[in-house]
Each structure stands twice: as C-alpha cells, then as structure tokens.
Amino acid sequence: MSNTSPASLKLYLHPLSSFCWKPLVALYENDTPFQPHIVDLSNEAARAEFKKVWPLAKFPVLRDETRDRTVPESSTIIEYLAQHYPGRTQLVPGDPDLARQTRLSDRFFDLYLQVPMQKIVGDRLRPADKKDPFGVEQARAQLQVSYGMLEADLANKTWAMGDSFTMADCAAVPALFYSNKVVPFDQSHKNMQAFLERLMNRPSVARVLAEAEPYFKFFPS
Known about the structure:
By secondary structure, the chain is α+β, with helices and mostly antiparallel strands. Helices cover 55% and strands 8% of the residues.
C-alpha cells in the first residue's frame, strides 16, 4: 500500500491533457494520495511558476517532496509510482519479459496513436494559411495502420496485456478516447470499441473522465 501523506506528492497537470490522464489513472487505480495542481499555460504567471519546477513547462510532472524528486513524463511517473508507491494494482509486472512487453505496449499507444492524433488536433488549431494537409493525411494513415494492429492484438483480451490491468492500459485510455474522437473507429474495430468501453467503465478511468468533462468544450472537434 502507499505510504504517502496527502501533501507529499503533487501532480502538475491539466485535466484536458491526454498525457496527464495516464498518471491520473495510475494514481486513482491505487488510491495513492496526491495533490493535483492544475496549470494554465496560457497564464504567464502560472507558466513562469511551473517553469521553476520543470523548465520545459510540459506536463505532467510529479513532485515528490518526501523523496525530494521531480519526475516528468507520463510513463516515467507511472514507473516511479510502481517502484516507490505500489498499491493493489501492479501496473508494471514483476516478470522482466512481461514488463518489457508492457512498456512496448505503453509506447505503442503513445507514439502510434497519441502522436498522430495530436498532429490532427494541432492542425485544427493552426491559422488557415498555416495548415499542413499532407501531415494530417500521413497522421490519418498512421492511425489506420495502428487501428488494424491493435484490433488484431486485442482479440480474446480483457486488458491490453491480457487479464491484468497495467501501465499499458493507463496509456490506452487517452490514446483510444481521443483518437476515436478524431478518427472514429468503424465497424471493423469491434475489439477496440469493446476495449474502450471496458476502460471507460473502470472506476479509476471514469473518475478521470468526469474531472475532464467540464473542459471538453475546449477540445477542437
């Protein structure tokens, strides 16, 4: 069980940020006490204050006052929590081979779903004369390849790695939720649709979605 106090862990985040969802799911999954700190990067004072914690001003960032550690990047944060503040759900398997496969799945969701999805979303925010239609076309093509690979991989699985909920599922939550908004799954992606539904019904994920819901109006659909 976690040995933190409510003030020992602070997560710098924004509820709409897809990469912030990953550590939030991990924290809620194990009921790990932490203090959420929402950062508004459009506010210069808030940005300047955040830069004192992490000069790159990219969230999420976990600050552990007990251990005097600043931990950036979503996957690294989950690994850190699994090592120093484990809970009932073992997010990183103890078996080295299974742990490696879990990390690969985590990277797949980040690099081959989230990255192309964010390319499409980012293009919607560009001025009309700065659009990148070729880049968007490439991103859409990448998503379709990733969808095909994932659809096959999820056959006969409950979670990303099989029967156990892991770090890979934390990564799958934002990757699938937002990708489905941008390039919706079609009828050939029944395994993905069922997987996303299972994820959304999990209490830790449902909590993240509920906290993000007031901000969905800002998502460029």
